[in-house]
Amino acid sequence: MTAHFRSYNVLFLCTGNSARSVIAESILRSVGAGRFNAYSAGSHPTGRVNPYALEVLQKNRLPTDGLRSKSWNEFARPGAPQLDFVFTVCDNAAGEVCPVWPGQPMTAHWGIRDPAAVEGDDDAKRKAFAEASRTLLNRIRMFASLPLEKLERLTLQRHLDELGKAPAETATE
């Protein structure tokens, strides 16, 4: 007899939903396939996914199908998936307004510097997107490895908050 684990709905939130939250959605779709349903949204969506975000995902062979910039209002409507986890990935230090999610999902702030705000040539922008992607990959891998079914809520919250402080791995993939 095989144990049946429920799948968890995870929403990554940011302001524009064009880079960090979309990258996180794609990473969790890949890393947590079958165990997690990954979504992303923004408080003020730009309406398009940043081309550098798509480039870094494709370079890392991560899924890009169905990715789009959308409002967090889609997840507040009747019939929307009931969320288990909501992670904000905007960077408070940059003066961005990070959305606050009402309701009962577990929440944590995993601030990531906005790669879309980096100015300079294409190489500087690609480097910023690669760094954001590495940091998110590291945090999401650690999150996906947590024994969620076995942790009580306060212990789990402590783990989620700590993951928001985890740096990128130094090794590149």
Count of distinct strands: 4
Strand order of the largest sheet: 2-1-3-4
Strand content: 5-15%
Annotated CATH homologous superfamily: Response regulator
SSE succession: EHEHEEHH
Main sheet properties: 4 strands, parallel
Termini separation: 36 Å
Number of domains: 1
Percent range for helical residues?
25-40%
CATH class wording: Alpha Beta
Helical/strand content category: alpha/beta
CATH topology: Rossmann fold
CATH architecture: 3-Layer(aba) Sandwich
The Cα radius of gyration reads 15 Å
Anisotropy-based shape: globular
Uncertain runs are none
Average of per-residue pLDDT values: 88
User: So how many helices?
Assistant: 4
Provide a quick synopsis of the model.
This protein has helices at residues 20-31, 51-59, 122-145, 153-163, and strands at 8-14, 36-42, 85-88, 106-109.
Outline the secondary-structure elements.
Layout: E1 8-14, H1 20-31, E2 36-42, H2 51-59, E3 85-88, E4 106-109, H3 122-145, H4 153-163
Helix pairs in contact: 1-2, 1-3, 2-3
